[in-house]
Amino acid sequence: MHTDLVAALDIGGTKIAGALVDGDGSLLVRAQRPTPAREDAESVMGAVAAVLEELKVSPLWHGARAVGIGSAGPVDASAGTVSPVNVPGWRDFPLVERVVAETGGLPVALVGDGVAMTAAEHWLGAARGYDNALCLVVSTGVGGGLVLGGKLHRGPTGNAGHIGHISVDLDGDLCPCGARGCVERLASGPNIARRALENGWLPGPDGDATAAAVAASARLGDRAAVASFERAAQALAAGIAATATLTEIDIAVIGGGVAGAGEVLFAPLRRSLRDYATLSFVRGLTVAPAVMGTDAGLVGAAAAASSVRHEGANARAVAAP
């Protein structure tokens, strides 16, 4: 029998996924609901509760010792609240308190989705075996997380490693966050597509104007498409090199939809890193694609939960196993 499990929740703007996870990171029971992102706070919480109810009817539920939550951000782990940008009904929503109540008082760990992905990659993925790592999620936005000294470094509110809002272009475009020239403004999927379109790239007959379509054109040599990915890679390289110089990370792991572009992104990224990571102690930095895929959020949330099993109800501290 499985008597030492954790429950994991992965909360995003599109779906709320849940799982019961064992000590090896295997997802034994799964549940999922669409996120009612345009509805009020209680409707969104209702979807979370429905996922938890589906897990609770499993005979394995009695083995769950803690709950881990990876949520779209911003999150505030110190307060136990979430304010996902793409779920406007949730602003400073007391998610930890509500999940504690739904699960009968199990200890709960809350982290942002970038930190959850980092926990997953460090536990079972591309950053396994590295004591110092930066993991990035490059998709609609750019998020990330840090492993320092062999442990997940989440910061007081659970947002440490949020590389997307490091400024790499001092006089660059205004970012929705309020700063200028952020990595996200240059390297996210929508911004890669926007820049390609502005510079003359034309979508194919199907009208697909996503970063994936830009990547397909770049593989065929389209100049505007190639240039947009090179600019994104340059921004990522500058942000990664800055992080490495501050923290002496050994590896940068890159996941998210944009990483699916493969060498269209990674080749110029490695070239640009040589221009930015120039000091002796960062020159050997490895760059690798993430390997955990769509389960990274659940596995990372489980990694967070594993750390609080012995800390009592409402505990929020996090460390990768």
UniProtKB/TrEMBL annotation:
Its Enzyme Commission number(s) read 2.7.1.2
Keyword Magnesium set for record? no
Q: InterPro entries from the xrefs?
A: ATPase_NBD (IPR043129), ROK (IPR000600), ROK_cs (IPR049874)
**Which molecular-function annotation in GO is an example for this chain?**
glucokinase activity
Q: Which Pfam families match?
A: ROK
- Cross-referenced Gene3D superfamilies, in alphabetical order? 3.30.420.40
Keyword Oxidoreductase (UniProt)? no
> What keywords were assigned to this record?
Transferase
Q: Which species is listed as the source? A: Streptomyces clavifer
Q: Which domain of life is it from?
A: Bacteria
**What is the protein's given name?**
Glucokinase
Q: Which PANTHER family does its entry note? A: N-ACETYLMANNOSAMINE KINASE, ROK (REPRESSOR, ORF, KINASE) FAMILY
Record family assignment: Belongs to the ROK (NagC/XylR) family.
